[in-house]
Amino acid sequence: MLATFIVNSPILASIVFTLITIATYQFASACQQKWQYIWLNPMLFTISILVPFLLVIDINYQEYSQTTEILNLLLEPAIVALGLPLYQQFKQIRFYWREMTAILVLGITVVITVSFLLAMWLIKAPEIAIALSLKSVTTPIGITLTEQLFGDSSITAFAILIAGLFGALLGPQWLSFIGVNSAKAQGLAIGSASHVIGTAVLVRKSAEHGAYSSVALILSAILTALISPWLIPLLQQLFN
Amino acid sequence: MKNVLYTIFAISICLMLGKLANYLLAALPASLYGMIIYALFLQLNWFSPDKITKTNQWFIKHMGVCLVPAGMGIINHFQLIQQHGIALVVIIFSSTFILLTVIGYLSERYLITPDNIKSKTMAGPR
């Protein structure tokens, strides 16, 4: 009853659902800050509380996304704000930019190809394959790129989250196991595969780890944006 | 408060220029152009890094909340998860580890050497 009343008034619905989203997210952030568990990711936590909540009050996704449009609109300026860490890492990038770009281009090409082909083989749905192949970049940019290529951005958002958690939880151990121990290499690998979630974990090891990880996360986002618009259509042609 | 408005102004200008760049050049999304332009303006000191840092860091710290509506789309995919949940996890897991291995291995091999050479040459003249 109350839900119908709220949904019938667009402004009230916008205010209520945006506030619920922000409040839940704040609560989740506070919990993570208190307990410091990586898997207690605020976004994952918020989604796992809000999904059952929407199902109980019988609001579908379209209604929810219309009412929280304001948060979606803020995504663009939020991406621009990432220019600050990019500026702060200029020094690091300037010294190794050729090598780093070459390594990241190779890594990104491999990961897009592998994810796309695996997804087409196992799931056979192009929009899911596009979403999964763009999962190794930071969420706001991954979502923007997926929408640009007509993939399913909600799958991208989720896949990015899971990739982030995998890399953050198991990445450092895996890299040490295969003999990759330097701060630069560990930083670049985790930053490009597990973006912000990985960087947040790695920065506890050393400032150098954190610096390279954030360089990788920004550079790989830019390079993925340049590579994916021609690589993905090329891969799609294989299945036509 | 003054710095908050200054930061919003700086970000808005860069986003507008980003939109223009996207219109003229395509290739990258407008927000990514905006991000690069913003970093460039900070480097050139056209916008003061000292003034924007605090507000900007606040934005970055809380930007995750803007991603929740996109992530909520998963509500439409319960069937997909039921049918292909394991396949999804396998794809994400394996491709993440391939990426970690490729980048980690290549960086360990190719990014370390120049530093060693540099420290040797720097030590030389002394």
UniProtKB/TrEMBL annotation, chain B:
<keyword id="KW-1003">Cell membrane</keyword>
<dbReference type="InterPro" id="IPR005538">
    <property type="entry name" value="LrgA/CidA"/>
</dbReference>
<feature type="transmembrane region" description="Helical">
    <location>
        <begin position="59"/>
        <end position="80"/>
    </location>
</feature>
<keyword id="KW-1133">Transmembrane helix</keyword>
<feature type="transmembrane region" description="Helical">
    <location>
        <begin position="86"/>
        <end position="106"/>
    </location>
</feature>
<feature type="transmembrane region" description="Helical">
    <location>
        <begin position="30"/>
        <end position="47"/>
    </location>
</feature>
<protein>
    <submittedName>
        <fullName>CidA/LrgA family protein</fullName>
    </submittedName>
</protein>
<keyword id="KW-0812">Transmembrane</keyword>
<keyword id="KW-0472">Membrane</keyword>
<dbReference type="GO" id="GO:0005886">
    <property type="term" value="C:plasma membrane"/>
</dbReference>
<dbReference type="Pfam" id="PF03788">
    <property type="entry name" value="LrgA"/>
</dbReference>
